[in-house]
Amino acid sequence: MVNQAWPNNLGPVICVVGARPNFMKMAPILRAFTGHHPALPTLLVHTGQHYDKDMNDRLFADLRLPRPDINLEVGSGTHAVQTAEVMRRFEPVLDAHRPSCVLVVGDVNSTLACALVCAKKEVPVVHVEAGLRSYDRLMPEEINRVLTDQIADRLYTTERSAHANLAREGIANERMCFVGNVMIDSLLANRELAHPPAVTLRAAGVDPGILNGPQGYGLVTLHRPSNVDHAETLAPLLGVLREVAEKVPLVFALHPRTRANVERFGLGELLGSRRIVLLPPQGYLEILGLLAGARLVLSDSGGLQEETTALGVPCLTIRENTERPITVEQGTNTLVGCDPGAIRRGVDDILSGLGKTGRVPEFWDGRAAERIASDLASWLIARHAQRGR
Q1: How confident is the model over 175-212, as pLDDT tens digits?
Q2: Can you tell me the distance from the alpha carbon of 335 to that of 257, in angstroms, rounded to the nearest whole number?
Q3: Catalytic residue annotation
Q4: In terms of Cα–Cα distance, which of 256, 264, 304 is closest to 280?
């Protein structure tokens, strides 16, 4: 776009983060907004949906993310309570700061809650990571994605298939813009800063020698309620992980929800193998180092599907579906569901050299945030000029 000053009477872009995945997406966006000409003025609002102060502080430091200008301190609650509380606390922020737009990322409760408030206040909504669909309406995140996209005025997509999803839902093509994946911007910007796996294990009091076997090691994360909230599902998953650990040692970053349910259901014995290293929740740079060094990953995380594809690490996703199909079609991801047999076969394929090598998808090049900044500045200034006539 033509280099021009930001209009004096055009308000800031309010950027919303609420939970851990949002931080990785927002960090490169804020850097791109600052580096753009003209710079886009921003106000960073943290809803407090992710309320672990120590982990928050660690993530902000790891990602070089500026401290929030406003923290709504919503905390935990049911989906309804949390969404309603974000809405209640976010509305006065709009009234006080009169933003040019509100930028939301991903699919957490804070994303939908803030978008809903904007719709009622006639404030433009910008959605980063629009159009992703699992077509599983039992996932709360799917509802958040669909509704946020219906509300959004500008929709930035990570893969071209998202445009077809949005078109089927009646969203006009001129509202969409394919920019690539800001999660990969963060990964590429921080890869050289990642903590070596041996350092991470030593910090947890674990002998890093377990990483040095002939098969390397696998990284495990599990946190989705459908996988960890019911003993009849969690027990077979932990059982097959114990079997897998006899073939390749596993580093298991244990989510608080998962740890609590392992204890509640009395399943701790299944994780008692010396070849399963249990770690507390890790910072971004620790997980990035563990990912980059892994022989394989077993996870139900959406973000790890993308990151393993970018790193060329085979990933077995313990879900029946994915909202990121490009990681399966072009990347290193394979859906194995909760079927122990499929998990065993997937692991055996990888260890025998038959795992997916994949390729890096289009525009997963570390410049997605720059494309967002350029397009959004043009869009906001043009919209402002048109409304001022």
Answers
A1: 999 999 999 999 999 999 999 999 999 999 999 999 99
A2: 23
A3: 223
A4: 256
